[in-house]
Specification:
CATH architecture of the largest domain in chain A: Orthogonal Bundle
Shape of chain B: elongated
Distance between the termini of chain A: 50 Å
Order of helices and strands of chain A: HEEEEHHHHHHEHHHHEH
Strand content of chain B: 15-25%
CATH superfamily of the largest domain in chain A: Cytochrome c-like domain
Structural class of chain B: alpha+beta
Oligomer: heterodimer
Number of strands of chain A: 6
Number of helices of chain B: 16
Helix content of chain B: 40-55%
Largest sheet of chain A: 2 strands, antiparallel
Number of helices of chain A: 12
Shape of chain A: elongated
Largest interface: A-B, 37 and 34 residues
Number of domains of chain A: 3
Radius of gyration of chain B: 33 Å
CATH topology of the largest domain in chain A: Cytochrome Bc1 Complex, Chain D, domain 2
Chain lengths: 317, 476
């Protein structure tokens, strides 16, 4: 792909390449014959010398190279010309075979997908809950998970700060197989707005205390009572009046023991003040979309594996 | 050799030429057949090396091919040993041993590799033998080439090239048989052969046909680097193929009954048999030359002539430059084989071979790699318990299935969790196991701690590997 605005570099490259090839050919041709004088050393007058003399008596023999050596060189020059006609090399001329590295990649990708397709074919007719019970599918799903998902969610799918635990049966967007497929294909973006300015410092601590009380964690009683009306005003719209969360928006359930960013008061307060989906420290809440990377069949098998992690009693987990 | 007087071929110097090409048309060499001790040794090496090359792919071991370089599975099988990519150090050792042994026997006896065992020489000799059987001896071959094209010539040449191509194809297929099991390979011909197998069989076959049928001494003279750096490995005590100038000169024809010394002649009768048998077309009487591949054909040829003339053998023989210059006896010359250079090479060779052998014998078939999950620094598994996540790659390089247990040491109360034990790994297989390690929050100070993972099997021959890793305890 040529993104230069002027044809100068094209011409420059073409000139250099063509000049080099012609130069090689000329070099081979012009140095193929030399003038020699026959002043060979005493013993064997059959060896001729080139006539150069160094240090009074150091002479240079002419022991001829075999003809096939220079013939091979000519063949490489011809090969070079043919190659440049067929493949890119002369500036941005694409070559008569139309090869490009992007095209080669796409061809490889297509070949790979074609080889993979039969492996996944038998899952096409199965429901995800059924796939989750198939041992071969589970192993495939585990390998796909380890390759694509484990960097954020951990090799054991147990999550990390800011990355949900996929083994605990607790789902931000709902844990049905279709929702899981949607999460993987389209990605997710959890948006919690910042409430630091609206609530003020004391208001934030009050709300934090109330939130802790919702899940039975230790909290200041007074603060919690002060926080309740603030919660109803600001937080209930997304998190629900009872704090049970909202799958449609991905708002977490605040009454359980699953805390994505930690359960300490300072962690909760940070979320309220800054919101989440702000920066890397407060958490970006961004799950990338894998719809371009994985085929729909692969996503189904991965989703089945993940569904199984939370819903099937697998001894290892 | 005919009984008439040998003709002296005059060497005519090229006169003051104006322009001469820097490249010459190659003149074909027709080596004359020779028999003798060294010729028999060369036949022995041809047979021995080719028996191994063509025969090895057919050997079986434990229901698999005994010698197989499985590139797809990244495992090299040599009899009972399985080499994984992690064992590449043994390849380096093999190369070092090959180089040292090359230095050793080259320092002792010159280019014995070139003349007796090198595949280029071996295949050229096989192809020459075929050529001799079909086209005849040296004179017959020269005459045949000089003829214009006729039915007989076409038939002979056609048969020769057919035989050559057939052998080359079989060589190419055998070569690929080291990488794809040869029995499967043959069963897959012609329909189901893979594209790369076809390519390599044809390429290697073409290389054999080209090098042994056409190029021959051109490889030794112009392509092979060994010819050029042999002088580095020689010293004045190296046994080279030498013409005893003191004994042979001045050369000249004489009757068998005449006394050469009385006629003022040396032992060389100038029959030029040493030139006719030479596969690289040199005259060894001019002294050591880089083209000489050390095949000792001239030694055998000259010995035969000496026998016929009633002179002692050895006018051309294995001799060191020192022994010729100082007229040493054979025993003195042979005693010089044991000198610092050769003794040092031999000592190094034995030491490295011994070390490699011991290392191979004591090789632990269990290999373990442990990688800590970096994204998950540390997690609270339950109140008061911290966990880190890991991946263990357990490689069972033995050819029997194994069962392993994984445990951890390094902090009080630290345990492995989240995997089913024992971990079964099949023969010559590897398994990736994600797992967790849990430790109580108070097990140590916040920060990273060194821990050790132990993987062990409890089979007939217990195996064990210890791998270091780290465990992170967060600030509470």
């Amino acid at each position: 792909m040529n993104t230069f605005t002027s044809p100068f570099w094209d011409v420059w490259v073409i000139v250099i390449v063509v000049a080099s090839i012609i130069g090689c050919a000329w070099l081979l041709w012009s140095t193929g014959r030399i003038k020699v004088k026959n002043k060979g050393p005493a013993a064997d007058g059959a060896v001729s010398v080139t006539g150069h003399v160094w240090d009074d008596d150091l002479e240079e023999y002419n022991n001829p190279l075999p003809k096939w050596w220079s013939n091979l060189f000519w063949i490489t020059i011809v090969f070079g010309i043919v190659y440049l006609a067929l493949y890119p090399g002369l500036g941005s001329f694409p070559g008569f075979l139309g090869w490009s590295s992007t095209g080669a990649y796409q061809q490889e990708r297509a070949n790979f997908d074609a080889r993979l397709a039969p492996l996944y074919a038998r899952y096409a007719a199965m429901d995800i809950e059924v796939i989750a019970r198939d041992p071969a599918a589970r192993q495939t799903g585990e390998r796909l998970f380890l390759t694509y998902c484990s960097q954020c969610h951990g090799s054991d799918a147990g999550g990390a700060r800011g990355f949900p635990n996929l083994r605990d049966g607790d789902w931000l967007y709902g844990g049905t197989p279709e929702t899981i497929v949607q999460s993987i294909t389209k990605g997710r973006m959890g948006v919690m707005p910042a409430f630091g300015v609206a609530l003020g410092q004391e208001g934030v601590r009050d709300v934090a205390a109330y939130v802790r009380s919702l899940s039975g964690l230790a909290h200041g009683n007074l603060r919690s009572q002060l926080g309740k009306p603030l919660y109803v005003q600001n937080c209930a719209a997304c998190h629900g009046a009872d704090g049970k969360g909202n799958h449609a928006m991905g708002a977490p359930n605040l009454t359980d023991q699953v805390w994505l960013y930690g359960s300490s008061e300072s962690a909760i307060a940070e979320g309220i003040i800054k919101g989440r989906n702000v920066d890397a420290i407060a958490g970006t809440n961004a799950m990338p979309a894998f719809g371009e990377q994985l085929t729909p069949a692969q996503i189904r098998v991965t989703a089945a594996y993940l569904w199984g992690l939370s819903n099937l009693a697998v001894a290892a987990q | 050799m005919s009984s008439s007087r040998p003709r002296t071929i005059p060497i005519v110097p090229v006169e003051e030429a104006d322009e001469v090409g820097l490249y010459e048309i190659r003149r074909k060499i027709y080596p004359r057949a020779v028999s003798g001790i060294f010729a028999r040794w060369r036949v022995f090496f041809v047979v021995a090396t080719q028996l191994v090359f063509y025969g090895a792919p057919w050997l079986m071991w434990n229901s698999r091919q005994a010698v197989l370089f499985d590139l797809g599975e990244r495992k090299f099988y040599i009899l009972g040993l399985v080499f994984w990519p992690q064992d590449v150090v043994y390849l380096s050792v093999l190369l070092i041993l090959s180089a040292l042994s090359l230095f050793l026997f080259t320092a002792i006896a010159g280019r014995v590799w070139c003349g007796f065992a090198c595949p280029q020489t071996v295949y050229t000799e096989i192809f020459l033998w075929i050529e001799r059987k079909i086209e005849g001896d040296r004179l017959a071959r020269i005459r045949l080439d000089a003829e214009s094209v006729n039915a007989k010539k076409l038939a002979k040449k056609g048969l020769k090239h057919a035989a050559w191509i057939g052998l080359s194809l079989w060589t190419g297929i055998t070569f690929v048989g080291y990488f794809t099991p040869i029995r499967e390979l043959l069963l897959a011909i012609p329909g189901r052969l893979g594209a790369w197998e076809i390519f390599w069989a044809l390429f290697y076959g073409f290389a054999t046909y080209g090098n042994a049928g056409w190029m021959r001494e051109q490889v030794c003279k112009y392509m092979c680097p060994y010819a050029r750096f042999q002088s580095v490995m020689f010293d004045k005590d190296t046994l080279i193929i030498a013409y005893d100038e003191a004994r042979g000169e001045p050369r000249g024809a004489r009757s068998r009954k005449a006394d050469p010394r009385a006629a003022g002649l040396g032992d060389c009768i100038n029959c030029s048999i040493c030139v006719q048998v030479c596969p690289t077309g040199i005259d060894i009487r001019q002294g050591l030359q880089y083209e000489c591949i050390g095949c000792a054909a001239c030694v055998d040829g000259c010995d035969q002539v000496m026998d016929k003339m009633g002179y002692p053998r050895g006018l051309i023989r294995y001799a060191s430059q020192n022994s010729l210059a100082h007229a040493w006896s054979r025993s003195t010359m042979w005693r010089r084989v044991l000198r610092p250079r050769t003794l040092l090479y031999a000592a190094l060779l034995m030491a490295i071979a011994l070390a490699a052998g011991i290392s191979l014998a004591l090789k632990n078939p269990l290999k373990v790699d442990v990688i800590r999950d970096r994204g998950v620094l540390a997690r609270e598994a339950r109140p008061g318990v911290v966990e880190n996540v890991y991946r263990a790659q357990i490689m069972n390089t033995s050819e029997t299935p194994q069962s392993f247990r994984l445990r951890v040491e390094g902090l009080p109360g630290i345990v492995v969790a989240g995997i089913e034990q024992p971990i079964d790994v099949g023969p010559a297989a590897t398994r990736l196991v994600p797992f967790r390690i849990e430790a109580p929050m108070e097990a140590g100070a916040p920060g990273s701690h060194r821990i050790e993972l132990i993987v062990e099997s409890s089979g007939a021959t217990p195996l064990q590997r210890r791998e270091r890793s780290t465990f992170i305890l967060p600030r509470p």
